[in-house]
Amino acid sequence: MRVLVVEDEQLLADAVATGLRREAMAVDVVYDGAAALERIEVNDYDVVVLDRDLPLVHGDDVCRRLVELQVPTRVLMLTASGDVSDRVEGLEIGADDYLPKPFAFSELIARVRALGRRTSVPLPPVLERAGIRLDPNRREVSRDGREIQLAPKEFAVLEVLMRSEGAVVSAEQLLEKAWDENTDPFTNVVRVTVMTLRRKLGEPPVIVTVPGSGYRI
C-alpha cells in the first residue's frame, strides 16, 4: 500500500510516516498543501493522510482536487478540532474518513488499512494462495502452517503479489506500491527483495518470474 502523509507539524508527520513504514507501507511525506498537490498529480496513492489546516494550500482544497481527479485514492482527514460540524464538513468536501487529534496510533493504522482495502477489488481480510496465508492486520505470514518472519519490504512485496490474485505484477508496479519516491528506480532492489522472499518462503518456489513482464504467485 502506498500512502501520502500531508502534515505541517514535521515531527508528527515524520513519526506517522515511520510508524506506517513499520507496518510495511510505502510512505511519502510533505509538509504543505502545495507540495501535496504536486505529489498527487504525479503519483498514485492508495490513501492520503491529510491534515486540514495546511500552509500554502488548505487541506480542504487538496481534498477537493483529489475528488476532481476522480482517482480511487481514499482520504483520511486529520484535524485538531473534533466538533461534529467539522467532521461533517470534512466528509462533505470528499474525505472518506475523519480522525481528530490527538489520536491513538493503533487507530490511525487501522483506519488507513481499512481505507486501503477500499481502493481495490474487495478481498478477504486474510489472503491465502498457494499454501501461503498473509494477515495484513496482524502482519503475520505462514506457509503450510509454518510461520515466516519477513522484513517490512518483503511483507509489502508479498502482499502486493497476493492481492494481484495470480496476475503478473511488474517491477515498476512493485516499486510504486512497496517503496517511496526516494527509491532509485534503476537499482535492483526489487529483484534482490524477491530473491530473499523466495528463500524465506521455501520450496517449492511459489513466486514465478515472467520474463520481460514481472512476477506472480
UniProtKB/TrEMBL annotation:
Residues 2-116 form the Response regulatory domain. Residues 124-217 form the OmpR/PhoB-type domain. The modification 4-aspartylphosphate is found at residue 51. Residues 124-217 bind DNA. SUPFAM superfamilies: CheY-like (SSF52172). Keywords: DNA-binding, Phosphoprotein. CDD domains: REC_OmpR_CusR-like (cd19935), trans_reg_C (cd00383). Pfam families: Response_reg, Trans_reg_C. This is Response regulator transcription factor.
